[in-house]
Amino acid sequence: MHSFFIILLAVLSLTTALTTSRRARQCGAQVGLNCSGNIHGPCCSSHGYCGSSSAYCGAGCQSGFGSCDVAETASNVSTDGRCGGPSRLTCLGSTFGSCCSPHGRCGSSTAHCGTGCNSEFGTCRLASLAVVSSSTVTTSSVPAPSAPAPSASMKVSEDTRCGPKFGGQTCQGSEWGPCCSTWSYCGRTRDHCETGCQAGFGIRFPDPSTTLLVSALSSSMESSTSSLSQSTLSGPSTLLSVISSTWTSSDQAS
């Protein structure tokens, strides 16, 4: 009987350790945790943190404590805005946003990252926008983003599609992003908001020399540095209204 309780205690301890390893960010030999099935990503970086980008799965990745296959990780990133469910797609690295909403949609608004956010398939922290102006452009020459108010008759996109070919749906106010790309998809990346953007069905940023960067509020400096290097346009559409006033001062923009 005594042996039975010892074995039971060992099994319970092992179960607890496995659960912790799936939620903890740290990994590797020092802490004895594996990133397999971890919510932050399956790769254990050289610095001992779980993640899913090349910074974690590339050079120095600890193969004994998770996967080191970048292609395998990338294949699990949502490309259509859906997350969780049987496919178990993650929003981390998705162009639609890094938070998985209670309804299984990727995004970056409070509706996605707030109450009910599914941390198993993405982060549940709101991103903050930082505006950085090119050194070759003066603040006086940078035009404000065009943001015509949508007509009362225009339907806000609920399926990522926008423009005249899709019932005249607008991206302004859409959970997918405020810009309607040349391919008639709502989003918030440079591909959506710059060249070819359909300004009549969302917001357009006409000056490609001005870049919006996302400072993802993560628990790891590695993750923040990686996201800043991508130079993409992202963030909640509700914050876009402050960009024009931010551009009026070079000190504020830096």
From TrEMBL:
Domain Chitin-binding type-1: 24-70, 80-126, 159-200
Cofactors named for this entry: Co(2+)
Xref: SUPFAM superfamilies: Plant lectins/antimicrobial peptides
CDD domains the UniProt entry points to: ChtBD1_1
SMART domains documented for this protein: ChtBD1
Disulfide bridge map: 43-57, 99-113, 179-193
Keywords noted in UniProt: Carbohydrate metabolism, Chitin-binding, Cobalt, Disulfide bond, Hydrolase, Metal-binding, Signal
Superkingdom classification of source: Eukaryota
Endpoints of the signal sequence: 1-17
GO molecular-function term, one example from the UniProt record: metal ion binding
Name of the protein described by the UniProt record: Chitin-binding type-1 domain-containing protein
